[in-house]
Amino acid sequence: MTERATRSGIPLEPVYGPGDVAGLRYDEALGDPGTFPYTRGRRPPEQAASAWIQRQLSGEGTPIRSNAQLKYLIGKGATGIDVIGDTPTMAYLDPDHPAAAHAVGTQGVSLCCLEDYRELYAGLPLDGLTVSHSLPPLFGIAGFYLAARERGIDPARLRGSVVQPPFYCEDCGYATHMPFPLRLRMTVDSIEFASREMPRFHAFLEDTYYISDGGLDAVEEMALGFVEIRYVVRELLRRGVPVDAFAPRIAILVNCGMDFFEEVAKIRATRRLYARMMREEFGARDPRSLAVNIASHTSGLSLTAQQPVNNIVRGTTQALALALAGVQGIEISGFDEAFRTPSPESHLVGLRTQQVIQLETHVTRVADPLGGSYYVEALTGAMERRIQEMVARIEGLGDPAGLCERGWFRALFQDAMERHAREIRDGVRPQVGVNVHRMAEGEDTLLRDVAERKIEPSRERAERIRGFKRSRDSRRLRAALEDVREAARDTAQNLMPPTIAATAAGATLGEVAWVLRAAYSAPGDPFGMMEPPL
Amino acid sequence: MLIGLLGLDQHEVGAVAVARLLRDAGMEVIYLGRFNFPPGIVKTAADENADVIGLSCHSWEYLHYIDELLALLAAQGLQVPVVVGGSVLTASDERLLREKGVAATFGPTSSVEDIPAAIRSLVTSARRP
C-alpha cells in the first residue's frame, strides 16, 4: 500500500480536476438518480425516501429474549429489523447438539423450530416491517412464512430479506458442512419459491459483508459478490425462471470500512455495474431489476478492543459515507463488537447515530450530493473497472463452483486475513489505539465495563428442545421428513415446500439439515454426535 | 505447535494471523482451524508431539472448554503448555486462565511482536528437565 492509494490499492492524485473526468458522459455513465445506469441512486429524487431503513443487527439468547431486544429497538425508532442466528443455528445444529452446549444464544438468537419463530416475532407487525434474516435461508423463510400465515398475514405481503451465501459460507464463518450442490440448491430453490409466493421479499440478499470482514479489500469484496450473484442468476435462468420475476428482489448487503471515499465509490460503482450486467447480459427489462437495492453493515473488523469509545466515531463516519452514497438500509456495528454481540447500550448508540445523521445533518436532502465531484467520479470509474476486471479474471479461471470446491476462494480469504494483520502490525494501516496513539491499560477505561459484560449460554434451551422433540407426533414428523428426503433426491422438486411442511409438523433445523446432508451423501451430523432423525 | 479454535467459534482472523507470524518466526505450526473440541486437541497434541497448544478465542466457549482440556492433558500425563489469545479476553479473564493453569494469555492489548518470543520461552522451559 503506497501512501497515496485507496485501501484496495487504487493510486490517487493529490487533487482531481476536469481532466480526470474528461471522458465521462453524463447520460451514459451517471444519469439522474432513478435512471439507468442508476449510479446516482436507484430511485428518482422525488420518490427517494429521505431516510434509509434504520436497523441494528440483533439476536441474543432465547427467541423470547431476542423478541424483547427487537421491541426495544423498534420502541427507540428502528424502522426495520435484522435477526442473526447464534453459531449453532448458523451451522444448522439444534441447541441440544453436544457441540452447541457452550454457544447457544451467545452470538445471536437460537432458532430451531416453529415455536421459536412464533416467539421471536410475537407482537411484531410482520406486515408493516421489513424483517431481514441473517439465517440459513430455507429455515429463515420457512419460519417467517409459517409464523406470518398463522397470524392471518398473507406471505405475499411480507417484506425483508434473507442472506444467500452458497459460495463462501464454509470459509467465512457460516460453515454448514453441506456439499456445494446442496448449498446452491437451497439458495436457488428458496429464491424461486419466494419469487412466486413472497414477491415483495428479497429472497436473494447477496451478503458481501461477512465475506469481506476478514480483510478483503473493497474491490475483492464486490468482485466475489458479483461472481456469486452471476452464478446464482444463471442457475435461476437455466431453470426457466424469467429474470424479471426474481431480479427485482435481489439486494446486496455490503461492508463499509474506514476508507470513506472508496466506500462511497464502491456503492456507486456497484449500482452501475449491476444495472449494465442485468440489462446487457441477463436481458432484464423491468427497471426494478436494474436498480439494485443496497444495504450496509458497518465493518466490525475496523473496530478495536482498545479504547472502545473510538468505535462510536468509526461507526458514525461509516454511516455518514453510506448516507452520502445513498443506501436503502444501514446497520452500525456495536462499539463493543470486539468483545461481544451488541449490548443494549451499543444498540442504542448505533440507532441514535443513524437518527442524528438523518435528522440533524441534512445530508439526505439532496440526492447523490457527491455526484459530479471530480474525485468521486474518477474513483467510481476506477472501482468499477477493477471490480469488473477481477470478476473476469476469476470467471476466466474456470467454473467458479469448481474454484469454490478446490479452496481457491479460501486461499484468497486467508491471504486477506494475513495481509490485514500484517498491515496493522507494521503500522502501514494506522488504527488509533492499536498501532498509534495507544493508551496504558489502566487509563483505557471508558465504556469498557459495558463492552466486557458477558452473556451466559442459554443452557435451558437444550432441555427445552429435547422435551419438545419428545412431545411431537412422531408419525406425522417421520412422514414429513421422508418427504424432505424424497424431494432432496429429486432435483426437479423444490426443497422449500417440504421444508415448510416439515417445520409445521414439528421438525427442527438440525433434523431437516440431517436429512438433506444424508441425501447428498454427506454425514448427517458433521460432528458425529447425534442420532439420525430418520 | 498447534493452533486452533474451540467449539463452534468461526472467527479465524486472529488464528490465521498468529499461525503465519509464528511460521515466519521459524516455528512449525500445525493449523487445526475451526471446530476443535478438547479430546481431539489432546489426541493431536500427543500424536504430533506438540510443544505448545495455542487456542484463539473470539467467543466465550473457551471458558467452558479450558477446564476439560487441561484435565485431559493432566490425565494423560502430557505436559504441553496451553496458551490462549483473542480480543475477547479481558484482564480478569487472563488472570482467571492463568490461575487455572494456562501458561500464557494474549489479550487485545498484547503486542503481537511479543508472541513468538513468549512461545519460544515456554518451549525452552518445558523442555528443560
Order of the strands making up the biggest sheet of chain A: 1-9-8-7-6-5-4-3-2
Structural category of chain A is alpha/beta
Task: Give the CATH class of chain A.
Answer: Alpha Beta
Largest sheet of chain A: 9 strands, parallel
Unreliable stretches of chain A: none
Q: What is the radius of gyration of chain A computed over CA atoms, rounded to a whole number of angstroms?
A: 23 Å
What fraction strand of chain A?
Answer: 5-15%
Mean residue pLDDT of chain B: 93
* Class per helix and strand makeup of chain B: alpha/beta
Q: Termini of chain B, distance in Å?
A: 19 Å
Q: Please, how many helices of chain B?
A: 5
Number of DSSP E strands of chain B: 5
Question: Percent range for helical residues of chain B?
Answer: 40-55%
Please give the CATH architecture of chain B. 3-Layer(aba) Sandwich
- In total, the number of domains of chain A comes to 1
- Work out the number of β strands of chain A: 9
Shape of chain A: globular
**What composes the largest sheet of chain B?**
5 strands, parallel
Please characterize this protein's 3D structure:
- The complex is a heterodimer of chains A (534) and B (129).
- By secondary structure, chain A is an alpha/beta fold.
- Chain A has a single domain (42-425), classed as TIM Barrel (Alpha-Beta Barrel).
- Helices cover 47% and strands 8% of the residues of chain A.
- Chain A has helices spanning 26-30, 63-75, 87-90, 114-121, 137-150, 180-197, 209-212, 218-238, 243-246, 260-281, 287-290, 310-325, 344-360, 374-396, 400-405, 408-425, 448-451, 460-471, 474-489, 496-504, 509-519; strands spanning 53-54, 57-58, 80-84, 130-134, 159-163, 201-207, 250-256, 293-298, 329-331.
- In chain A, strands 1-9-8-7-6-5-4-3-2 form a nine-stranded parallel beta sheet.
- Chain A is globular, with a radius of gyration of 23 Å.
- The mean pLDDT of chain A is 96.
- By secondary structure, chain B is of the alpha/beta class.
- Chain B has one domain (2-127): Cobalamin-binding domain (Rossmann fold).
- Helices cover 47% and strands 18% of the residues of chain B.
- Chain B is built from five helices and five strands, in the order βαβαβαβαβα.
- In chain B, strands 2-1-3-4-5 form a five-stranded parallel beta sheet, with helices on both faces.
- In chain B, helix 3 links the parallel strand 3 (53-56) and strand 4.
- In chain B, helix 2 (38-47) packs across helix 3.
- The mean pLDDT of chain B is 93.
